[in-house]
Write a structure and sequence with these properties.
It is built from 3 helices and no strands. The protein is mainly α. The radius of gyration is 32 Å and the shape is elongated. The longest helix is centred in the middle third of the chain and has 29 residues.
């Protein structure tokens, strides 16, 4: 049930996985208003590009043809 640890020649290596530091990391720096605006603009640009490609690409993917288009193609020959 419990695993026995192998003897290690250096005690600090054996205790390294149990060590917890009492030093807290420094707090994260808050983003400035300019950085937040830049992130929002980047996100909006990406979303607008995806929506635009979908809007422009859907007519090309549609398989339905109107009768006027097929008649026009047969008269051009």
């Amino acid at each position: 049930m419990f695993r026995r640890r192998e003897p290690v020649p250096f005690a600090f290596v054996a205790e390294a996985d149990r060590f917890r530091s009492n030093v807290a990391p420094p707090p994260r720096r808050r983003a400035s208003a300019g950085e937040m605006a830049g992130r929002c603009l980047l996100g909006l640009t990406i979303v607008a590009g995806l929506v635009g490609s979908l809007v422009l690409g859907l007519p090309a993917l549609s398989t339905s043809h109107s009768p006027a288009q097929t008649q026009q193609a047969s008269h051009d020959r």
